[in-house]
Specification:
about 375 residues; Cytochrome p450-Terp, domain 2; 2 domains; Citrate Synthase, domain 1; 3 strands; three-stranded antiparallel β-sheet; mainly alpha
């Protein structure tokens, strides 16, 4: 250490922790997680109860208003969400002309930012305008994702039908045919289970941007950028890519043990919050089994279960929501590189809910930084260095 470096007494900073683990930065009424018990609640309602009984649209209302809607309120929200699904012309042009090899999350990030240009309330940060923009963003993200996927495949971008749920219209715009009741319900449950999850990286990003009094489109664009990372939203794509490496002759036990011996991460396992089974994974595990059987892909589920068994025995780690959601998406015929965009399509409800909450009692987010470098160095002219 240089003589110019001053010793830092780290005991002065008892709350410093890498990754802010254990640090409470906000209070919220949007969701509650008990990592020890493996519990997740949205505004007071258990995730399993919502997944079995609710709809994504109803969950959106719950997150925005912290209560369930009555029938009139839900009907009104559904009507507005249908009316707002159309994309502006400039966004459609972008989807048609974007590099076909682009990552879907990159395209989604750019398209969401572009939506601000055509939103008459883009700069209005009042609670009322923000809620209306939240509805519009939630309505339009499915059309962006489906539109780019069809465009890169050389297919016509389809306009929304505007007659049923977000899940229904998304699957129609993506595949070009109206989905059956079971497919719609599966997609709806996937959206519900990904809608909100406390102070994760993308939600922290969203609230941080909101805290500067920047607009909602900027906050959601930033959140998408955060979600794009493989340690956050990209994990389920990594899970599927791992499964696609396997075949009927693969020794699953040796495959997993080999990766562990090489210190390679098995994606879809463990969680910074949950110290037991991720409650979202429990429901998705059943869905993965049923869907894989329905489309003659039982091998996917069997491989997944084998990996779960080895990881529990070798590392005592349980799967998280990303692990079984990968199998569910693949069984539905959805390309792996779209998985994270669907995550964003669901989580935009949580991001916007947190933006509204931050807005209501805002304070600029400004944590301290502990400097560990040198000081009082002598400046040397460039000719003498």
């Amino acid at each position: 250490m240089s003589s110019n470096t001053k010793e830092i007494d780290l005991s002065q900073y008892p709350y410093m922790d890498k990754g802010l683990e254990g640090i409470v930065a906000f209070s919220s009424r949007k969701s509650f997680i008990d990592g020890q018990k493996g519990e997740l609640y949205y505004a007071g309602y258990d995730i399993d109860t919502l997944a079995r009984n609710s709809t994504f649209e109803e969950v959106c209302f719950l997150l925005w208003h912290e209560r369930l809607p009555n029938k009139s309120e839900l009907d009104s929200l559904n009507t507005t969400l249908r009316e707002e699904r159309d994309l502006p012309a400039e966004v459609l042009t972008y989807l048609r002309t974007a590099n076909k090899a682009s990552e879907p999350m990159s395209v989604l990030r750019t398209a969401v930012s572009m939506l601000a240009d055509s939103d008459p309330e883009s700069a209005d940060t009042s609670a009322e305008a923000t809620l209306r923009k939240s509805v519009r963003l939630t309505a339009k993200l499915p059309a962006i994702i489906a539109g780019f996927d069809r465009s890169r495949e050389g297919k016509e971008i389809l306009a929304p039908l505007k007659k049923k749920s977000i899940a229904y219209d998304f699957l129609y715009m993506l595949n070009g045919e109206e989905p059956g009741e079971n497919a719609e319900r599966v997609m709806d449950v996937l959206l519900i289970t990904h809608a909100e999850h406390g102070m994760n990286a993308s939600t922290f990003t969203c609230r941080s941007i909101c805290a500067t009094m920047s607009d909602l489109h900027s906050a959601v664009t930033g959140a998408i950028g955060s979600l794009k990372g493989p340690l956050h939203g990209g994990a389920n794509t990594a899970v599927m890519n791992m499964l696609l490496q396997l075949d009927k002759d693969t020794d699953i036990i040796e495959f997993v043990k080999g990766k562990l011996e090489r210190k390679e991460k098995i994606m879809g396992f463990g969680h910074r919050v949950y110290k037991t089974y991720d409650p979202r994974a429990k429901f998705l595990r059943t869905m993965a089994k049923d869907l894989a059987s329905e489309v003659d892909m039982e091998y996917l589920y069997e491989w997944s279960e084998s990996i779960v068994k080895v990881m529990k025995e070798e590392k005592n780690i349980d799967p998280n929501v990303d692990f079984f959601s990968a199998t569910v998406y693949y069984s539905m015929g959805i390309k792996p590189d779209l998985y994270t965009t669907i995550f964003a399509m669901a989580r935009v409800s949580g991001w916007t809910a947190h933006y509204l909450e931050q807005l209501a009692k805002n304070r600029l987010i400004r944590p301290r930084l502990l400097y560990l470098g040198e000081r009082d160095l002598e400046y040397t002219p460039v000719e003498s260095r």
